[in-house]
Amino acid sequence: MKNVTDYQGKQVLVLGLAKSGFETAKLLLKLGATVIVNDGGSLEASEDAQALRTLGVRVFDQGHPLELLEGTELIVKNPGIPYRIEILQEALKRNIPIITEVELAYQIHEGRTIAVTGTNGKTTVTSLIGDMFKHSDLKGHLSGNIGYVASKVAQETDEKDYMLTELSSFQLMGIQTYRPHIAVITNIYSAHLDYHGTQDEYVRAKMNIFRNQTAEDFLIFNSAQKELLSDYEVNGQIIYFSTTEETDGSYMKDEKVYFRNEFIIDVKDIVLPGKHNQENVLASVAACKLAGIANEAIIKTLTTFKGISHRLEFVTEQQGVRYYNDSKATNTLAASFALDAFKEPIHWICGGLDRGNGFEDLDQHVQSVKRMYIVGETTEKLKAFAEQHDIDYTICHDVKDAVNQTAEYTEDGDIVLLSPACASWDQYKTFEVRGDEFIRQVGVICQMND
């Protein structure tokens, strides 16, 4: 951990507690800052809030009073808190800098960083890279949006270590000096418009990942979307990946994977399922080759890595019916990948938070859908979608109810697929909670049928 002195004696407001706020507050104390924590909800029962108070942190909850800005020189904001709330708008007027904790993590990290963002695939790519590092002589630390608070992980690294960081657009809006040696953008499609307001703002947030790079750094980018870079200044070296054409990076040709014309592996030997994962593999291979990972470590991962929880995760097979948990599919593109992965009849559990978008992007991906089980705020939209495509449907209270309803209609050879095409927040705190409920209820159904 670098000896950073910029925060000594500085009053810093940590906005939003949660895991990242708790770790951020503790780190800032180590760095000599005067720390205030503020959360909009009630922290009366929070052990973390009490622990911070014991350390001398002032903690305020149940609102964001503007008085907290008095004397504040910096705000470290929870990524999920939108900039449109009053206290942040007032902070901007007063020219108080606002960052997210990944910026703080970068400032104290002594080694290099591989950072991954994108609309879809970023968790899979980060996990693949992490697994490749695990099989290599180099040390990599998973961090960021993948579930490990970056500002905590950074304290455990030295100058030889890599931070392997998954970044959301929300996190990337709050950076200043953040500069990954290797940046990966898997793809960019429409998402999070309820937060960003416009697609242009969302794209700009994603592109922040490379804004501080220099000529010695690398940007790994999807060749199919290279036109998106035309409006941005890229100072790093662009390395493209492609499943359809040869590039000066990673690509597929004749069912083989190459990096800069060097053969890596036959596609048939890659165990991670789905065509969409081929791009994830190529992005991961490029990042690890640039970091100096040996082919043996890369191949070890590609021949053993079967995927991660809530991403087209096989749950079980019962009486010839296979169950898949794809709760991470929080938009239509991710859901289309899952729907295209099966030729068998699909019982599709879908729906969730209504972000204002339609589902017409799925028009060409529902040929195998036998029945839809619709939940959440988007019920009316998905009901209309089902009727438009002449698909039978059942309106369900929640995912648990949907799993129960599938038992009435499934038969040998069918697929039950949770791939909501929507965020979870109308009914569930996270997509993980939603996926766990699916898995739990599938287990109940299986026990009943034993």
Automatic annotation (TrEMBL):
GO MF terms, alphabetically ordered: ATP binding; UDP-N-acetylmuramoylalanine-D-glutamate ligase activity
Catalytic class of the enzyme: ligase
Keyword Cell wall biogenesis/degradation: yes
Localization, UniProt: Cytoplasm
Gene Ontology CC, one term: cytoplasm
Gene designation: murD
Organism: Macrococcus brunensis
GO terms for biological process, alphabetical: cell division; cell wall organization; peptidoglycan biosynthetic process; regulation of cell shape
InterPro entries in the cross-refs: Mur-like_cat_sf, Mur_ligase_C, Mur_ligase_C_dom_sf, Mur_ligase_cen, MurD
E.C. code: 6.3.2.9
Family affiliation: Belongs to the MurCDEF family.
Catalytic activity from the UniProt record: UDP-N-acetyl-alpha-D-muramoyl-L-alanine + D-glutamate + ATP = UDP-N-acetyl-alpha-D-muramoyl-L-alanyl-D-glutamate + ADP + phosphate + H(+)
Keyword annotations from UniProtKB, A to Z: ATP-binding, Cell cycle, Cell division, Cell shape, Cell wall biogenesis/degradation, Cytoplasm, Ligase, Nucleotide-binding, Peptidoglycan synthesis
Binding residues for ATP: 118-124
Listed name of the protein: UDP-N-acetylmuramoylalanine--D-glutamate ligase
Source superkingdom: Bacteria
PANTHER family attached to this UniProt entry: UDP-N-ACETYLMURAMOYLALANINE--D-GLUTAMATE LIGASE
Positions of the Mur ligase central domain: 116-288
Function, as annotated: Cell wall formation. Catalyzes the addition of glutamate to the nucleotide precursor UDP-N-acetylmuramoyl-L-alanine (UMA).
Pathways per UniProt: Cell wall biogenesis; peptidoglycan biosynthesis
Mur ligase C-terminal domain boundaries: 310-422
